[in-house]
Automatic annotation (TrEMBL):
Superkingdom of this protein's organism: Bacteria
Species annotation: Kribbella voronezhensis
Alphabetical GO biological process terms: photosynthesis, light reaction
Compositional bias ranges of the Acidic residues kind: 92-102
GO cellular component, one term: plasma membrane light-harvesting complex
Name this protein carries in UniProt: PRC-barrel domain protein
Gene3D superfamilies membership: Photosynthetic Reaction Center, subunit H, domain 2
Coiled-coil zones: none
Region described as Disordered: spans on this chain: 85-104
Length: 121
């Protein structure tokens, strides 16, 4: 079993550095959750901000790039290997603060998603 790297895209996810994925739909393992509002592909800090719309009351969530299973450029859709509930229950992201760059928040988020990986999702 390989190690989960939350802040980098998987080699087999189909992501090419510099690709603009803003606007792509996000699909959890059990249904769509929203669309990409913002994304970064910085090595060791790659992540996606998802606008969930009405799904969880318009809340935005931050997904570490490591949860991206694959990207379908033709359909403009990103598949992640987590359920809607796992994403909804993640440490809350506040787009009006510096959570995006806050080291403590990123550590908590990375550990949260990493724990699911360790348990075999």
């Amino acid at each position: 079993m390989s190690t989960f790297d939350p802040w980098n895209y998987r080699e087999d996810a189909g992501y090419t550095q510099g690709t603009n994925i803003v606007g792509y739909k996000i699909a959890a393992t059990d249904g769509d959750i929203g669309k990409v509002d913002k994304a970064t592909d910085d090595v060791g800090a790659a992540s996606i901000v998802v606008d969930t719309g009405p799904w969880i009351l318009g809340r935005k969530v931050l997904l570490p790039a490591g949860v991206v299973q694959r990207i379908d450029d033709a359909d403009k859709k990103i598949y992640v290997d987590r359920t809607k509930d796992q994403i909804k229950d993640a440490p809350e992201y506040d787009p009006d603060t510096s959570d995006y760059d806050d080291r403590d928040y990123r550590d908590r988020l990375g550990n949260y998603y990493g724990d699911y990986y360790k348990r075999g999702m």
